[in-house]
Amino acid sequence: MNLENSGYLWLLLVIPCFLYFSLRSYRTTSEWLYRFAHSKKRPIPYIVSTLFLSLALGAVIFSLAEPTVHYSKIVFNRSGIDVAIGIDVSKSMLAEDEMLPEEGKKLFAIPNRLNRARYCALSIISELRGERAGVFMFARKGVSIIPLTTDYGYCQYVLKHFNDATITIPGSDLSQAIATGVSLFDDTSRKTVKTIILLSDGEDISDDKSPLYEAAQRAAAQGIAIYTVGIGMGRGVLIPIRDAAGTAIVDYYQDEEGAYLKTRLEQDTLKSIATITNGRYFRASQEHSEDSIVKAIVQRARTIEYTRVSEPTWFSLSPVLLGAALIFFMLGIITGR
Predict the structure, then answer these.
(1) For residue 76, what pLDDT is reported?
(2) CA distance 82 to 193
(3) Coil, strand or helix at 194
(4) Which of 81, 216, 253, 286 could crosslink 276 through cysteines, CB 3.0-4.6 Å?
């Protein structure tokens, strides 16, 4: 036990004084009662009442000293969570079938899938509270852009300022995306709750999905959950080519035979990845989807011991003592009657 204001303990000297005057009061009243009524005052109720009132006085004085007790409290620590955010930068992400929220329109002029994914990543990072975050981009290959860090300002700066028109390349290999996300955790020396967030339209260059699902299973075997976020609409749309200033559409992408390419959101692929790794699938177009993603990650982390730490805590006894003083005072009044 620790006393924050031990100087108040000298007030305990009031209790012996209180007992002395209580005894004198009892003798005086007893004498007057016997003199005028020829009866004796019963000592037991008076002694019990005096004891309770003394305890009430002592409890109030000890509460002024602000006693505290030390104990260890198990708390949830969000710094035990690592999040790798992957953004699809394939050509299909230039399709303009997504709507940007009002805040997103202030950041990005073109309402395409890539900018919607960037806004989603920015919103997720703004919701983090102590977790380490890393960012990677992927198309046919994956590239780590930001290693795991708690410098959220730097993450947001990079996401806001890279040139989306120059980094997009044809095709997307989601198995490579998963492998890149897993590699961000290679330098982690401590045990953490590992999570990958894939922001993609779900299109994959391979018709054979077995390598993709095998990559997801390897991630799941390492305890990594993958949360997938679908970007785009479920119907086929053209992929525009904009001018150098990005202000006007000058053409649309075509295949080698001259036919215009169309792209659509492949939800089943993204849902399968999430299911295999015990993650969840979200749609970027859903309201407050970013909040839901972070809440799902935190909810999963709460069930894992890595995020539970023992924290020394001091508990103040003053409110308890004041409550006890009130009870003792009431008992003193009742028994004294």
Answers:
(1) 66
(2) 6
(3) strand
(4) 216
